[in-house]
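Database export, one record per block. Field names are fixed; values are copied verbatim from the stored entry.
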Amino acid sequence: MLCFGTKLPSGSMSSIPWRSAGIKYTNNEMFIDLVEEVDAILDKHGNVLVADVKGEVVCNSKLSGEQCLMGRYGREGSGTD
């Protein structure tokens, strides 16, 4: 969990160093893209000989004020995060 306090250090404009203070959006939105790339080599019968999967999570946040964001990922029902 990633949270930032509400008390600002002296001389700071925002408690989040990379975010300007007082940001207001007309629509509070959060866009999350899961980008996956699969590379595989198959034999002539369609059996997988070698496979590689790469992925990334790309976020675009348009939320007003300061947020507390908690992310969780894992296979559904596996009990792992």
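Remark 1: The radius of gyration is 20 Å.
Remark 2: The beta strands are 29-42, 48-62.
End of record.
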